[in-house]
């Protein structure tokens, strides 16, 4: 089976049999209020198969201001961004630099195909132009899986503001006001950098600090491993942390911990690395030792701790 055929086989078509059910895209909305408005095919896990998947999900869902070189197979210089001015899908700067936006104005069912379409548009667009939305007419039949180096992870840079929107420029009053508005809603965010840790980000919401960690394991196995750690007292990241729950994003589970706001973000990198080792051991042990009754009860408790990203 060819790569594109496999990708299509992994897609999940939403039907209108029960429009009140949660939308398969993972938005948390009812199907009729989300993708039920059209006939688009929903790809529940649009970035599956890419080493960049956890950071792609983070840039799409909760990184406020971030950029990353896109690891394209053809080596073309393209910058992926969390969000562009006006939530545009793509922008070509006057110098020809291409920027693609993750947080865009669309309810498409296949974000991977949208990004490939935005890139195709940008590569033939005039400098100084932008693409507000990727519609069906912009799709090329390719997806990110066809364009990226599959084993190369994304390396996002998290910024404290949106100054990179207008690099080296003195913004006019309108642009300055736009930057001020955008900067005013940024929540301080940092990546946790440590061996075995990828897709984990610390964020200060103003009232609480959290660690959000995008995990790529199958949800059934991941929840079982988390339950085992919970029963063993190893679910926290360390002193000053509390497991808060999890949310789903683009086919992946994102565990969340409340952490001490007084501690610097970098102080959670080491505990996260230690947790990663415990989690790997718990996952490996599931093959030979099914969950005990106590661990099953712990899993039920954890399953009830579903949180909404704000």
Instruction: Tell me the major beta sheet.
Output: 6 strands, mixed
Strand tally: 11
Helix run count: 8
Strand order of the largest sheet: 5-3-4-2-1-6
Mean pLDDT: 89
Radius of gyration: 20 Å
How far is the N terminus from the C terminus? 40 Å
Secondary structure category: alpha+beta
N-to-C series of helices and strands: HHEEEEHEHEHEEEHEEHH
Gross morphology is globular
Give the oligomeric state: single chain
How many discrete structural domains? 2
Record keyword descriptors for this entry.
310 residues, Yope Regulator, Chain: A, 2 domains, 11 strands, 6-stranded mixed sheet, alpha+beta
Note down, in words, how this protein is organized:
With 310 residues, the chain is α+β, with helices and mostly antiparallel strands. The protein folds into 2 domains: 45-184, no CATH class; 189-303, Yope Regulator, Chain: A (2-Layer Sandwich), CATH 3.30.1460. The chain is 28% helix and 16% strand. It is built from 8 helices and 11 strands. The protein has helices at residues 3-9, 53-61, 111-124, 144-147, 173-184, 219-232, 269-285, 293-303, and strands spanning 66-69, 78-81, 90-92, 98-101, 130-131, 157-158, 189-191, 200-204, 209-213, 241-249, 252-259. The strands form 2 sheets. It has a 6-stranded mixed sheet with strand order 5-3-4-2-1-6, covered by helices on one side. It has a 5-stranded antiparallel sheet with strand order 7-8-9-11-10. Strand 1 and strand 2 form a beta hairpin. Helix 6 (219-232) packs across helix 7 (269-285) and helix 6 (219-232) crosses helix 8 (293-303). The chain is globular, with a radius of gyration of 20 Å. The two termini are 40 Å apart. Residues 1-16 have low confidence and may be disordered.
């Amino acid at each position: 089976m060819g790569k594109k055929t496999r990708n299509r086989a992994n897609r999940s078509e939403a039907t209108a049999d029960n429009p009140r059910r949660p939308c398969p895209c993972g938005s948390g909305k009812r199907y009729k209020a989300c993708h039920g408005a059209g006939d688009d095919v929903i790809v529940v896990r649009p970035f599956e198969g890419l080493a960049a998947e956890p950071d792609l999900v983070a840039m799409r869902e909760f990184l406020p201001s971030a950029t990353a070189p896109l690891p394209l197979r053809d080596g073309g210089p393209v910058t992926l961004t969390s969000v562009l001015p006006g939530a545009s899908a793509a922008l070509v700067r006057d110098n020809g630099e291409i920027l693609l936006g993750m947080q865009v104005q669309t309810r498409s069912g296949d974000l991977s195909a949208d990004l490939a379409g935005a890139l195709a548009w940008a590569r033939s667009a005039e400098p100084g132009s932008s693409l507000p939305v990727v519609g069906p007419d912009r799709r090329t039949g390719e997806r990110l899986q066809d364009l990226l180096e599959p084993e190369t992870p994304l390396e996002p840079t998290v910024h404290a503001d949106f100054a990179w929107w207008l690099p080296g420029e003195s913004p006019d009053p309108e642009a300055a006001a736009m930057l001020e508005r955008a900067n005013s809603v940024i929540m301080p965010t940092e990546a946790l950098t440590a061996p075995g840790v990828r897709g984990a980000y610390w964020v200060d919401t103003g009232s609480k600090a959290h660690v959000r960690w995008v995990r790529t394991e199958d949800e059934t196995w991941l929840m079982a491993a988390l339950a085992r750690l919970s029963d063993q007292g190893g679910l926290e990241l360390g002193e000053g942390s509390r497991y808060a729950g999890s949310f789903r994003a683009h086919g992946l589970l994102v565990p969340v911990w409340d952490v001490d706001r007084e501690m610097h973000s970098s102080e959670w990198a080491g505990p996260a690395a230690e947790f990663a080792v415990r989690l790997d051991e718990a996952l490996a042990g599931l093959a030979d030792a099914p969950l005990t009754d106590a661990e099953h009860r712990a899993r039920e408790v954890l399953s009830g701790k579903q949180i909404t990203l704000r």
